[in-house]
Amino acid sequence: EMPLTPDGKVDRKALPAPAATRPELAAAFTAPETEQEKILADIWAQLLGVENIGIHDNFFELGGDSILSIQVVARANQAGVRLTPRHIFQHPTIAGLTAVAGSGPVIQAEQGVVIGDVPLTPIQHWFFAQDQPQPHHWNQSLLLTLDTPLDAALLETAVTHLIAHHDALRLRFHREKNGWRQYNEAINPDETVFVHEALADTAALPEKTAALQASLDLSAGPLLRVGYFTLGDGRPAYLLGAAHHLVIDGVSWRILLEDLQLAYQQLQQGQPVSLPPKTSSFRQWAQRLAEYAQTEELRQELGWWTAVTHTAPLPRDYDAPSAENREGTAQNVTVSLTAAETTALLREAPEAYRTEINDLLLTALAQAFIHWTRQPGLRLHLEGHGREDLFADVDLSRTVGWFTALYPVELTLESVEKPGETIMAVKEQLRRIPNRGIGYGLLRYLCEDTVVRQKLAALPQPELSFNYLGQMGQGETEESPLAPAVESGGPERSPQARRAHLLEIDGGGMDGRLELTWTYSPHHHRRETIERLANEFITSLQTLIAHCQSPEAGGVTLSDVADFGWEQDDLDDILAVLEGM
Hints:
581 residues; alpha+beta; Non-ribosomal Peptide Synthetase Peptidyl Carrier Protein, Chain A; Chloramphenicol Acetyltransferase; 3 domains; five-stranded mixed sheet; 19 helices; 14 strands
């Protein structure tokens, strides 16, 4: 225990004198021995792509992130090791996790077919507030290639099982006089979800994928279509999954791909389809959010969100009206790190300042934008996966749906020149955000107090959005026949769709390399402007990675010692004393 003065500060005079000599400490590798340790080590190895995992290795220092933590929980629970995402953040080693595994209530999710009304969630309210001219065509999709063609009849049966098992895939949306209503339909065996077409060559693919992307209907359904396109003569086949974004997100696609492969293998082997047990339903989550939005506990966050008010617009090259910012004219600039730099970012850099990947990505982003805008800070919409541990009796680790949390963040930096100070400043600003931002949407859209909703609606909206999607394809089995296709899967959104931001940055790990796509409006920005900005971001990120690998890097911040309840000057005093030892 630290000795304190009467006013609660650290009493430096009462601290013990430092020992004359201090042996160097090194973290010893300890191999997993118990059954639970071996199960978790195997899961980590699959998802992180790392061999020889010790029980004291830190999940986040091996390249783990919040999205991968959900996959760890899902696979651990299937293997009988009961965990929650909160466990991984609080105890990020295998030794720590096995000590708490099984604590907390056993969550019994309803396993039957969910039918009936479902409250809209905040992100669904946000979508409908955009009042898109063609709301039916606003999708997320995956185009995959298969070297070995599959049996189309078995594939169609497997897809049918997915739609029966994952209730959100049967959601429907009806426009009524008071707004949109969400309803979970029963299983409809006559619905046409799967289409198989034989193509002469890949030149026919764009027309087919575009038609499938435009074929969804919010009210009549379906909201998922799967197209299987074969070329014959031993050439690769293509599998396109397109779902309306209202019923799917990046984590959901990972779940669906796992289940599609499992169902197909079971059918191929003549077995009945048996998918992993359901976790809590999307309907239960939506109902619990609607209740939580009325609580005094959540109301305490209002002051935080109304304080995020930095309003300077982004610089523009052209003064075009916002109506010209549409999907049909949007263009992309893509930048990336090398494989070696990505490995350093994921597995070496986090150790210096106990960071997560978003801390470093957003530090580099803030540096680049502060140089560009000449403003002292950066205001943006941050997208998180939104599957937060708000309720002890809800488990979303294998639930399909759109869970994204979209919330405003303001990052201010006193200096962009000192990498260590900059990283720690951004890290602490992100850690102070309550519940990873999920409360903003709850207060903005679900709170029944009109004054609260109006206060948040009146705030200026950021013109920049950032979304780190995790590591794509990570954790897929070696024998998986599916691989991402290089070809386009067709337009995911209507060309007339209004874009909510001037700049959108979406990033993720692809083939072992971090890749970020910057989407912009050519009516507002020149391509050279966005290329220069994106390249400055990459340069800043490379500098931060190199700094974190250097011997002088390292530092402790308040969130690292949150359990002690210290203030920053307490921590500074302690660190100064330790440095003098």
